[in-house]
TrEMBL record:
Residues 149-378 form the Sigma-54 factor interaction domain. Residues 8-122 form the Response regulatory domain. InterPro entries: AAA+_ATPase (IPR003593), AAA_lid_NorR (IPR058031), CheY-like_superfamily (IPR011006), P-loop_NTPase (IPR027417), Sig_transdc_resp-reg_receiver (IPR001789), Sigma_54_int (IPR002078), Sigma_54_int_dom_ATP-bd_2 (IPR025943), Sigma_54_int_dom_CS (IPR025944). It comes from the Bacteria. One of its GO terms (biological process) is regulation of DNA-templated transcription. Keywords: ATP-binding, DNA-binding, Nucleotide-binding, Phosphoprotein, Transcription, Transcription regulation. The modification 4-aspartylphosphate is found at residue 57. This is DNA-binding transcriptional response regulator, NtrC family, contains REC, AAA-type ATPase, and a Fis-type DNA-binding domains. The keyword tRNA processing does not apply. CDD domains: AAA, REC.
């Protein structure tokens, strides 16, 4: 059973009898850790203990309540302070509330009950905030760039580098790669390593939404906009406000909606279906596809203007068959996680099993490998996974739809995109990509990139 952290309360009260009364009432909860101080100085000297809640007597022998409250708020802005006074002065109460006091109570026969209720509410808020911080830390660790895309191959290291660069800015990111390579994991890694980590991450699979519902899903709708619209619905763009919107399988978006999406992204405002009021939004956009978007443009199935609007920072995920020994590294990680989750003894791959994994093309990429390894872990009779435990089916590797680029080609595409976006400002491009301006000038001189 997980132990509950004590809720630390400071009682600042110079009246010994009343101070003991407050301590007795608050101490009736076994999770409360209560300390009393009779002067402002004594309390301020102990703020390094990080109390969760403070009751503050307005009239102390060495300071007035306003002064003490201001110093507490400066040092502990997240700690709630409840002011308790022996005088009912509306002006004083308003002044203290404006300075950040949680509430203002007058000492009377109802004070203890009101205090108990207030402390209960604040404690619930503090514990919820703590749980959220722990969850955010856990998610941040889980979706760190090395944890999200595990691997030591040079192509994966390049992906790690691009994730880090993307996370430092709000540039649009386009992720491409075969099915099962981890495109959504890259999107989550960028989001949770960025300054927007505490805001929503909203993922939308364009291929999974019926064509007639895509507009309502993205932009929302007003009540009565169409048959079945019995209430207003906020779209995914509004839902992701302040955070990140991930549009997976963007190539599946119907041509008729591509123009609408382009305008919405350019104007940074959306009008719900059936409505006439524009709603502003602020999202970081990440798109993904397993198709070659440029080929889709050339075939007339994707708008060229939208293509360039979404290109942003391109990240190409390599198929598993091109990652060498990363297959074994990932397989071992999947076994460890699966065994830990199911309280099984750790399994090891035999040499023959490793050879079989390395020889398989994995058309389903990392997703297929994970499924194969977990099933093999279940099928294994002992603590070793044999070659025959691996349920691998014969199959050829798919055609590479993303036209895998070399490291140089990807670098050139990124620099060219930034030059276009920043109007040819070489210094601004160098600053954004954190490279030397001489590097950009050299690429221009060698006609690898161009201005205008």
């Amino acid at each position: 059973m997980t132990s509950v952290l004590p809720f630390k309360i400071f009682v600042v009260e110079d009246n010994a009898w009343y101070g003991e009364l407050l301590m007795h009432r608050l101490g009736q909860n076994p999770n409360h850790s209560v300390q009393r101080f009779s002067t402002a100085r004594a309390c301020l000297d102990q703020l390094s203990e990080l109390p969760d809640f403070i009751t503050l007597d307005y009239s102390l022998p060495d300071a007035k309540g306003e002064q003490v409250l201001r110093k507490i708020r400066e040092r502990l802005p997240n700690t709630e302070v409840l002011v308790i006074s022996g005088q009912e002065d509306v002006g004083t109460a308003v002044s203290m509330l404006r300075q950040g006091a949680y509430d203002y109570l007058v000492k009377d026969e109802h004070t203890l009950d009101r205090l108990w209720n207030i402390v209960g509410k604040v404690e619930q808020q503090v514990r919820l905030r703590h749980d959220n911080n722990q969850l955010r830390k856990h998610i941040g660790n889980r979706f760190g760039r090395e944890q999200a895309i595990l691997g030591e191959h040079s192509s994966v290291q390049l992906v790690h580098t691009l994730i880090a660069k993307a996370a430092r800015t709000t540039i649009t990111v386009s992720v491409s790669g075969e099915t099962g390579t981890g495109k959504e994991l890259v999107a989550k890694a960028i989001h949770f390593q960025s300054s927007r980590a505490g805001q929503p991450f909203v993922a939308v699979n364009m291929a999974a939404i019926p064509r007639e519902l895509v507009e309502s899903e993205l932009f929302g709708h007003e009540k009565g906009a169409f048959t079945g619209a019995v209430a207003r619905r906020v779209g995914r763009l509004e839902e992701a406000n302040g955070g990140t919107l991930f549009l997976d399988e963007i190539a599946d978006l119907d041509l008729s909606l591509q123009a609408k999406l382009l305008r919405v992204l350019q104007e940074r405002e959306v009008t719900r279906v059936g409505g006439n009021q524009a709603v502003e939004f602020d999202v970081r956009l990440i798109v993904a596809t397993h198709r070659d978007l440029l080929a889709e443009v050339e075939a007339g199935r994707f708008r060229e203007d939208l293509y360039y609007r979404l290109l942003g920072l391109p990240i190409v995920l390599p198929p598993l068959r091109q990652r060498g020994n990363d297959v074994l590294l990932l397989a071992e990680a999947f076994v460890r996680n699966f065994c830990a989750l199911n309280n099984l003894p750790l399994r090891q791959f035999t040499t023959e099993a490793c050879d079989r994994l390395l020889a398989h093309p994995f058309p389903g990429n990392v997703r297929e490998l994970k499924a194969v390894v977990e099933l093999a872990t279940v099928l294994a009779d002992g603590e070793q996974i044999q070659a025959e435990d691996l349920p691998l089916r014969a199959g050829r590797a798919p055609e590479d739809p993303t036209r895998q680029l070399s490291l140089r080609d990807q670098t050139t595409a990124i620099v060219q995109n930034c030059l276009d976006e920043m109007g040819g400002d070489v210094l601004a491009v160098a600053a954004r990509l954190r490279i030397g301006k001489s590097t950009v000038y050299r690429m221009i001189q060698q006609r690898e990139v161009h201005i205008g």
